[in-house]
Write a structure and sequence with these properties.
The protein is α/β, with parallel strands linked by helices and 331 residues long. The chain folds into 2 domains: 172 residues, Peroxisomal Thiolase, Chain A, domain 1, CATH 3.40.47.10; 150 residues, Peroxisomal Thiolase, Chain A, domain 1 (3-Layer(aba) Sandwich), CATH 3.40.47.10. The protein contains 11 helices and 13 strands. The strands form 4 sheets. Strands 1-7-6-4-5 form a 5-stranded mixed beta sheet, sandwiched between helices. Strands 8-13-12-11 form a 4-stranded mixed beta sheet, sandwiched between helices. A two-stranded antiparallel ribbon has the order 2-3. Strand 12 and strand 13 form a beta hairpin. Helix 3 packs across helix 4 and helix 8 packs parallel to helix 9. The protein is globular, with a radius of gyration of 19 Å. The chain starts with 5 loop residues before the first strand and ends with a strand. The model has no long low-confidence stretch (mean pLDDT 97). It binds oxa(dethia)-CoA. The site of oxa(dethia)-CoA has 20 residues, from helix 2, helix 6, helix 8 and strand 12.
Length: 331
């Protein structure tokens, strides 16, 4: 196969479970308020998976919509990358279950990728590089999370922030030059692992009655510290990729940031000296869906007509690790 000139997004899809949990409902079970959650984060409600609804189920919904948007069939896919921190099971990869549920060929390369909230950008860059190698034709890249299964619903400092959902993109080659993924910048502050983690359930602290009692199998976050790194990481990731490609911030038509906190997004807008109208924000309706947040927002932005041919879009994210990433896409 000749090496493709560009790797492009051919279609997108998104899914959120039907159940909507509002701030007011949360305030009935924990010591919080709609006013606190909205003023500190911008979040008003989030979607919560139904009992028995798995991460792979949500991924399949989003993937079917992305395939339809791309006008492709399951048989056209030969690479499946799933970004998630909430796999159906610790092993095997959720990508294998999604492959089966979608009816993808058994010769599809399937794997999960864990870069937390930066996961979709990591997966997009990985898939584009694999398509760019000429050895794969069409990739499905899915960011999906069932965060309701790992948050501690008794911990008001974290449980109000997160939600469930899935977003997918189909990637393929294009003969058009200078379109699709123009570039990506990935990185990590690996000295900050402890700021946002699930302490138990891995090889360091296997699940035990003790880890259950200490609630260490739930997500723990030092919110204030993570906030500072999030602003720094997203600013650096945005600045580096713009500089690397000689692009001025005001050439960006739309920024799709990770949807963690409206105050973080406002800081990035200030740093890039761009008005908030250039930022796509939907965290008020979804909360933080980690790896799913950018692909859900990307799909909503496309369907809302916020992305047009020729536009330049900047994706920028930050998450546990602490990872960060940015990507530039020309449509
Ligand atoms: O996506 C992965 C990356 N994650 C993030 O980017 C999250 C980054 N962090 C944040 O978004 C913010 O730090 C939070 C939204 C988590 C918290 O906002 P904050 O302004 O940093 O608040 P805080 O943690 O300093 O808490 C302020 C007060 C505390 O009370 P005292 O100690 O001042 O009396 C908390 O106990 O608010 C209290 N508090 C709450 N009150 C009502 C904490 N959570 C709640 C709550 N409802 N849910």
């Amino acid at each position: 196969m000749p090496l493709p000139v560009s790797t492009v997004i051919l279609g997108t899809g998104a899914y959120a479970p039907a159940r909507v949990l509002t701030n007011t409902e949360l305030a009935l079970t924990i010591d919080t308020s709609d006013e606190w959650i909205v003023s500190r984060s911008g979040i008003r409600e989030r979607h919560i998976a139904a009992p028995g609804e798995m991460t792979s189920d949500m991924a399949v919904h989003a993937a079917r919509l992305a395939l339809a948007d791309a006008k492709l069939q399951p048989a056209d896919i030969d690479l499946l990358v799933i970004a998630t921190i909430t796999p159906d099971m610790p092993m095997p990869a959720t990508a294998c279950s999604v492959q089966h549920k979608l009816g993808l060929s058994t010769s599809t390369a399937c794997f999960d990728l864990n870069a937390a909230c930066s996961g979709f950008i990591y997966a997009l860059d990985t898939a584009c590089a694999m398509i760019g190698s000429g050895r794969y034709r069409h990739a499905l890249v899915i960011g999906v999370e069932k965060l309701s299964s790992i948050v501690d619903w008794t911990d008001r400092t974290t449980c109000v922030l997160f939600g469930d959902g899935a977003g997918a993109a189909v990637i393929g080659a294009s003969a058009r030059p200078a379109v699709g993924l123009i570039g990506a910048k990935l990185g990590s502050y690996g000295d900050c692992v402890d700021l946002l983690c699930i302490p138990a359930g891995g090889s360091n602290t296997p699940a035990s009655t003790g880890s259950l009692a200490s609630r260490d199998h739930f997500l723990k976050m030092k919110g204030k510290e993570v906030f500072k790194y999030a602003v720094r990481g997203m600013e650096e990731a945005a600045r580096d990729i713009l500089e690397q490609h000689g692009i001025a911030a005001n050439q960006i038509n739309l920024v799709i940031p990770h949807q963690a906190n409206l105050r973080i997004i406002e800081s990035i807008a200030q740093y890039l000296e761009l008005p908030m109208e250039r930022f796509f924000v939907n965290l008020d309706r979804y909360g933080n869906t980690s790896a799913a947040s950018i692909p859900i927002a990307l799909d909503e932005a496309r369907r809302a007509g916020r992305i047009n041919p020729g536009d330049l879009t900047l994706l920028v994210a930050f998450g546990a690790g602490l990872t960060y990433g940015s990507a530039l896409i020309r449509w």
